[in-house]
Specification:
The protein is mostly helical and 327 residues long. It has 15 helices and no strands. This is EamA domain-containing protein.
Length: 327
């Protein structure tokens, strides 16, 4: 049980970050052919079909294994609809602002500004009464410094694209916190499927209202769209939701920020980009931040060891995430 929980809370977000980092090239290439809403309408339509198949498969397996007990509880569909609308709206804004920003800013600055959600998430969490350990704040500071050394090379002058990226970071922060709220109420794969449907519909509306979609342009981007739709969207966002089922959203956001490290390493290995000592130093700071965030607190050590430390137990209970409810 503990091993499964560790994999879900740590391996899943790192794997999601790896997929997002390696998919960054596909997103950048697509900006030469299609506009943001068109790209995301196609991308998330693919993701919706992919996760719809997964959701149907898992539901059939639950029905086979548990019979009548596998039926959704009352009001489940309403909760799924609400969670899909909320998470989908935040994801729609975030992904389209990101795609728009990539047109007018460098990839390094885009990666740095987008990953500022590692700072925004714990700050917003304060207003939601989510406590963050001082070790986590230290990890956040280290990660921001690492991102700067990794991503910023030519100084930091603010452009229109940078502004779009900052708005994108705000939306992704809201998305992470919304998932933290809803993931214990609905099935993770079904939530992923619902939010992708919302993003594809909203993006299609934006495409028809303000862009000139072309079948020829989409044909030229078919492989980037399929790759980003299936892996970066269908797989990675679902892994994020499953990881946040009973995890601290700040720690998950730190693990997800490794996307910038994987993007730099993928560029060096696959595209022949050369990494400077400054960039390697940034990677080292980020990895240190992730390791520091994984060090358990005194309360967590006491609980895992079964020690009757009343102060530690009370502290852990205050920070405990609500248990996941079965559908």
């Amino acid at each position: 049980m503990q091993k499964t929980k560790f994999i879900r809370q740590n391996v899943f977000p790192i794997l999601a970050a790896f997929i997002w980092g390696t998919a960054f090239v596909a997103q950048s290439v697509s900006t030469d052919f299609v506009q943001p809403f068109t790209f995301n309408a196609a991308r998330f339509s693919v993701a919706f079909v992919f996760t719809l198949g997964l959701a149907a498969l898992f539901r059939a397996r639950r029905k086979r294994d548990f019979g009548e007990q596998a039926k959704p509880r009352p009001h489940y569909r309403r909760e799924l609809l609400l969670s899909g609308l909320c998470c989908g709206a935040a994801l729609t804004l975030g992904t389209n602002l990101q795609q728009r920003g990539l047109e007018t800013t460098t990839s390094g600055k885009a990666g740095f500004i987008t990953a500022l959600y590692i700072v925004i998430v714990p700050i917003l969490g304060i207003f939601l009464k989510k406590k963050v350990r001082k070790e986590i704040w230290a990890s956040v500071a280290l990660a921001v410094a690492g991102l700067y050394f990794l991503c910023i090379r030519e100084g930091f002058s603010v452009s229109e694209g940078d502004f779009f990226m900052f708005l994108c970071s705000l939306c992704f922060s809201a998305h992470i916190l919304m998932i933290d709220y809803f993931t214990g109420k609905v099935d993770g794969v079904e939530l992923s499927c619902a939010q992708f449907l919302v993003v594809s519909v909203f993006s299609a509306i934006g495409m028809l209202a303000g862009e000139q979609p072309s079948w020829e342009a989409l044909r030229l981007c078919v492989w980037p769209i399929l790759y980003v739709g299936i892996f970066s969207s269908g797989v990675a966002y679902t892994l994020q939701i499953l990881a946040q089922r009973d995890s601290n959203p700040t720690v998950v956001s730190l693990l997800l920020s490794l996307e910038a490290v994987f993007a730099a390493l993928a560029g060096a290995l696959l595209l022949g980009d050369r990494m400077s000592g400054r960039e390697y130093f940034g990677c080292g700071l980020m990895l240190t931040a992730v390791v520091l965030a994984q060090i358990p607190s005194r309360a967590e050590k006491a609980l895992s060891a079964g020690e009757p430390d009343k102060t530690a137990v009370l502290s852990a209970e205050e920070n405990e995430q609500p248990p996941a409810r079965e559908d």
